């Protein structure tokens, strides 16, 4: 069974090797027929502390790292974002 991958925004990177990611989903309300936004916070493992507050990242399901941390940062996305943010030294 494939692992779920979610996209969200980093809202906290204060703890060591952990980020808090806000994942927002949209759906149509069954009665009002309006688009409703719901969000949820996930704790994700960030081994190298590369994700920063405000970045859009991908997280995937993994083994439990702690009581609340069962997601991990997808490294290829974080490394690409970090490389794109750095200007070449000239």
Overview of the structural elements:
This protein is mainly beta. The chain is globular. The chain has one helix and five strands. Helix content is 12%, strand content 46%. Strands 1-2-3-5-4 form a five-stranded mixed β-barrel. The termini are far apart. It has one helix spanning 75-85, and strands at 5-12, 18-28, 35-45, 56-61, 69-73. It has a single domain, classed as Beta Barrel (OB fold (Dihydrolipoamide Acetyltransferase, E2P)). Keywords: Ribonucleoprotein, Ribosomal protein, RNA-binding, rRNA-binding. GO terms for molecular function: rRNA binding; structural constituent of ribosome. This is Small ribosomal subunit protein uS17.
Defining key terms:
mainly beta; five-stranded mixed beta barrel; OB fold (Dihydrolipoamide Acetyltransferase, E2P); 90 residues; 5 strands
Look at the helices and sheets and give the structural class.
Answer: mainly beta
**How many structural domains?**
1
Number of contiguous helices: 1
The spatial strand order of the largest sheet comes to 1-2-3-5-4
CATH architecture: Beta Barrel
Mean pLDDT: 90
Which shape, going by the Cα principal axes? globular
Mind sketching the topology for me?
Blueprint: E1 5-12, E2 18-28, E3 35-45, E4 56-61, E5 69-73, H1 75-85
Parallel strand pairs: 3-5
Antiparallel strand pairs: 1-2, 1-4, 2-3, 4-5
């Amino acid at each position: 069974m494939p692992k779920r991958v979610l996209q969200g925004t980093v809202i906290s990177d204060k703890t060591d090797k952990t980020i808090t990611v806000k994942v927002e989903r949209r759906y149509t309300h069954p009665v009002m027929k309006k688009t409703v936004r719901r969000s949820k916070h996930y704790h994700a493992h960030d081994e190298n502390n590369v994700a920063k507050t405000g970045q859009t990242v991908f997280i995937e399901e993994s083994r439990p790292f702690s009581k609340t941390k069962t997601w991990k940062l997808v490294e290829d996305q974080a490394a690409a974002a970090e490389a794109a943010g750095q200007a070449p030294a000239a």
